[in-house]
């Protein structure tokens, strides 16, 4: 089934299939070269480093929508225990974690999204099975990331803490990203990793602090599903911008990544940005990144460029994977 409306034409324009060969499984990860890493290191001034991840916790981001996504469940398999077959005075504690690979801060593998029976680069969607996971484009194929990160603080560029102060369903366009890049005093170059701040993460962080949200809840539900089917994120009007600038990846501080509701009245274009970026472009994509401290520091130093270091966990066959990214400034 083709994409609805003008989206099929947009898909043809941004598609990267065959660009790096018929057997490519890296997609835009191919743009993470030595030059992009050197450009990242050139931004480092003080060596200050900031974590961009949220804590993995049992009462974390997942609230059961969509179904079958679970926050981490931590189980101690041994507590201050001794191995009867090993000498010495030591005691050890070990843990077991059960969680969705997208439970917290994560990156999506290129196996994450398909449509019309195909994954990125034309691989059949049937390459992913319940028994073995993704035989192609799994999380183990994601590259280690050491490149220039560019904070596009769309909220701060518009003079607000959160874009939902303007519109709860604020749909970020290419023009909005240009405005944020000008605000950040950066020129986007191939291989950059675009880090888009909306301020939406504040809803979740308020819940961690026990602070009430605008709708009277703890904020976790608001963060995950929005209000009245509306939430902030990037839109299909930003997809061509990503392709034109040849960025290696785009992540943001939201749960859904893209704005809601979709533009088509029947929601036939649900998750269209995922489909266009992951399936057609091969773009590395991620959600639930905590950009609040980074936003303050980049504003103080007057630049949105930094060294981004992030190594996705190489779970073989996984469709997404946890990551603990660090910004070095």
Can you characterise this structure?
This protein is of the alpha/beta class. The protein has one domain: 3-Layer(bba) Sandwich (Glucose Oxidase, domain 1), CATH 3.50.30.50. Helix content is 22%, strand content 19%. The strands form four sheets. The chain has a nine-stranded mixed β-sheet, with helices on both faces. A two-stranded antiparallel sheet has the order 2-3. Helix 1 packs parallel to helix 8.
Q: Tell me, what is the CATH class?
A: Alpha Beta
Report Rg. Answer: 20 Å
Strand order of the largest sheet: 1-15-13-7-9-11-12-4-14
What are the secondary-structure elements, in order, as H or E?
HHEEEEEEEHEHEHHEHEHEHEEE
CATH superfamily: Putative cyclase
**Which structural class fits the helix and strand makeup?**
alpha/beta
Condensed summary:
The chain has 329 residues and is α/β, with parallel strands linked by helices. It has helices at residues 7-14, 34-41, 154-157, 174-184, 201-208, 220-225, 239-245, 272-281, 292-301, and strands at 49-51, 73-81, 92-98, 106-108, 128-129, 133-134, 145-153, 171-172, 193-197, 233-234, 249-252, 284-287, 305-310, 320-322, 326-328.
């Amino acid at each position: 089934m083709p994409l609805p409306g003008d989206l099929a034409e947009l898909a043809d324009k941004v598609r990267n299939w065959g660009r790096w060969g018929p057997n490519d499984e890296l997609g835009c990860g191919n743009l993470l070269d030595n030059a992009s890493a050197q450009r990242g290191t050139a931004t480092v001034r003080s060596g200050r480093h900031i974590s961009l991840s949220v804590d993995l916790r049992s009462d974390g981001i997942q609230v059961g929508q969509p179904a079958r996504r679970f926050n981490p469940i931590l189980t101690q398999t041994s507590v201050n225990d001794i191995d009867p077959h090993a000498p010495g005075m030591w005691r050890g504690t070990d843990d077991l974690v059960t969680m969705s690979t997208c439970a917290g801060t994560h990156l999506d593998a290129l196996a994450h999204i398909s449509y019309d029976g195909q994954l990125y680069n034309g691989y059949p969607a049937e390459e992913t099975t319940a028994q073995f996971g993704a035989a192609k484009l799994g999380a183990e194929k994601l590259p280690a990331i050491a490149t220039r990160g560019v904070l596009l603080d769309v909220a701060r560029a518009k003079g607000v803490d959160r874009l939902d102060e303007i519109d709860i369903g604020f749909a970020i366009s290419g023009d909005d990203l240009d405005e944020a890049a000008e605000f950040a005093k950066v020129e986007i170059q191939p291989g950059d990793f675009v880090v888009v701040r909306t301020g939406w993460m504040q809803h979740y962080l308020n819940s961690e602090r026990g602070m009430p949200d605008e709708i009277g809840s703890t904020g976790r539900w608001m963060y995950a599903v929005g209000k009245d089917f509306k939430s902030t994120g990037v839109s299909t009007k930003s997809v061509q911008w990503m392709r034109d600038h040849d960025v290696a990846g785009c992540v943001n501080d939201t749960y859904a990544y893209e704005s809601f509701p979709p533009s088509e009245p029947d929601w036939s274009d649900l998750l269209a940005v995922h489909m266009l970026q992951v399936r057609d472009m091969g773009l590395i994509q991620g959600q639930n990144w905590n950009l609040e401290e980074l936003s303050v520091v980049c504003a103080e130093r007057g630049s949105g460029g930094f060294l981004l270091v992030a190594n996705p966990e190489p779970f073989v066959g996984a469709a997404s994977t946890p990551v603990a990214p660090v910004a070095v400034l």
